[in-house]
Amino acid sequence: MPYAQPLWRQIREDLRAKIRVGIYPPGSKLPSTRLLAEEYDTSHMTVRRALDSMIELGELVGRMGIGVFVADTSEQDS
């Protein structure tokens, strides 16, 4: 029986896929945690865990009181 990934990891992978295909391009603001929780039919804490892991890896940038944005990796390369 295959190991099922925790939901927060599934959300993280889905967000990464959406970033890759341009649904959320670099610099774009992600929907609020509340909206993402509704989209994935889970708690805001599960979504937060996925977002926090991506922030720690530098894939997203959190701005307190403003939102979470896709990191612009082109700026980091220069």
UniProtKB/TrEMBL annotation:
Stretches assigned to the HTH gntR-type domain: 5-73
Pfam family, one: GntR
GO molecular function: DNA binding; DNA-binding transcription factor activity
Disulfide bond keyword on record: no
Keywords: DNA-binding, Transcription, Transcription regulation
Protein name as annotated: HTH gntR-type domain-containing protein
Family matches, as CDD domains: WHTH_GntR
InterPro entries named among the record's database cross-references: Bact_HTH_transcr_reg, Tscrpt_reg_HTH_GntR, WH-like_DNA-bd_sf, WH_DNA-bd_sf
Domain of life (superkingdom): Bacteria
